[in-house]
Amino acid sequence: MTSDTQTSFSKRPKSERKGLDLDELRSQAREEARRKQKEETASILASINKSREPPRGKRRSDTPKVPGTSPTRKDSSPIKPLSSILNVPRLLATPHTSSQISTLWTAYHASRTGGTGRGFICASLPVESYNAMISVAKKYPVFVVPVARESTADTAPDGEGSGTAHEFYFLQWDFHQPPPAPSATEPDPFEPVTSGSSCNLPQTSTVLFTPLQEYKLRASFATPYLVLTFYTDLSQSHGIVLLRGEITPSSGPVAAPPEQATSGRFFLSQIDAQLLAMAVQRFYLWGEGRRDGEAHGSTSEKLLKQFHEKPEEFSWQDLINHSNVTA
After folding, report:
1. Which of 57, 94, 140, 235 is deepest in the core (most CB within 10 A)?
2. Model pTM?
3. How many separate domains does the chain show?
C-alpha cells in the first residue's frame, strides 16, 4: 500500500473504516443513551439511600426539620399548625361549606406579600383524593419532575440555537402525625395532647421540591425550593384537605428565570411552583388521569413504578415527553 493510499484511507470517516452503516451507528447511540440513563437513575437512587442513612452513633429524628415550621406546638409535629394560619375555632363556630372554606383559603394566600400573593400557592382537594395519593406516596415517596426552560443560542448545545431545555426537580414526601381534632372552642393551653385527640384524622404530609443537581451534591442538606403542606384538620368535618405551598425566598438578587422576573425574591416563579404542585396530582393520584384518557393515567403510573422497581427500564425522555403532553 502506497503512502498516498494510506493517507486517503486515514482521512475517511471512522465509521467507514470500521464498516459501520447508519443503522448500526444509530443503534450504538441508542445503547449509549440507555446506558447513561441507567447510570443517572442509579446515581439518584444511591443519593436517596445515602441521605436516609443516619450518621454513625446517631439516630435520625422521626420529625425532620422543614422550612416554615413552628417550634411551639404542643405535639411533636414539625409542621406549622393550621390554627396559626386560620382562626379555626371561629371558622367552626359558624356554618361554612367546604366551598366557602376553599374560597377563604384562596383569599388569605392572595393577600400575602403585600397583597401580591407571591411566594405562596394554595388549593383544596377532597379527602378521598388525598387518601388515594398518600397511599401511593408511602410506597413511592420520591420521584423526579421536569420543568421546561427556554434555552438561548448561548446555552443551547453545539450552537443549535434556541429551543426547550428541562430542569429536573427532586420530589420527596414526608409524613407526620395527624393534627389534633379541631374544635369551635379555643383549646386549653395547659391541656396535654393525647394520642386519641386526633380523632383518626389522616396524617399531615409535606412534599419537598429541590433542584436535582443540588440534591445530588448535597442530599438531605440541599435547600428545597418549594414545600407543599397538606392540612387534614377539616377532612372529617368538611371532607376537604387544604394545600399550602411555600416558595423559599432567595438571598440573591434573582433566582427565577429572567423572563419570569415578577417572582422577585423567590427561588421559583409562581408558574413553576404551580407546575410542580400539579405534577404531584399527575403522578400520585392514580385513576384521576384516566378520566381524561387512559393513556395519560397509565403512563404516569408506569413511570413512577419503573423509577423505583425497574430503574434500568426508566426513560428520562419518556418522562419529558409525558410531562410536555400533560402540562
Report:
1. 235
2. 0.75
3. 1
